[in-house]
Amino acid sequence: MIGAIVSAVIIGAIVGALGRLLVPGRQNMSIGLTLIVGIVAALIGTAIAAALGVANTRGINWIEHIIQIVLAVIGVLLVTRMGIGGGRGGRSRGRTTT
């Protein structure tokens, strides 16, 4: 049970980070929200891979990982487009006018 939770967090962090890296531009998302998006994408991706019959393969399961990363990209896009990024606010970049 503990091992499953730890592996879900680790895989979720990796999948979420890869999802953010593949989305162009800057995302205003916190690390925690990236982790949540990655965990959800990993769980749903595993369920989809199991439904397709490609979840249990010998060696590295590339199809399942690709599905998870695609879902993470979609999740990052949804979160950033909805404006619930949870990133740091209050800092402005660029020129200031006075």
UniProtKB/TrEMBL annotation:
<feature type="transmembrane region" description="Helical">
    <location>
        <begin position="6"/>
        <end position="23"/>
    </location>
</feature>
<keyword id="KW-1133">Transmembrane helix</keyword>
<dbReference type="InterPro" id="IPR007341">
    <property type="entry name" value="Transgly_assoc"/>
</dbReference>
<keyword id="KW-1003">Cell membrane</keyword>
<keyword id="KW-0812">Transmembrane</keyword>
<feature type="transmembrane region" description="Helical">
    <location>
        <begin position="30"/>
        <end position="54"/>
    </location>
</feature>
<protein>
    <submittedName>
        <fullName>GlsB/YeaQ/YmgE family stress response membrane protein</fullName>
    </submittedName>
</protein>
<comment type="similarity">
    <text>Belongs to the UPF0410 family.</text>
</comment>
<keyword id="KW-0472">Membrane</keyword>
<feature type="transmembrane region" description="Helical">
    <location>
        <begin position="66"/>
        <end position="84"/>
    </location>
</feature>
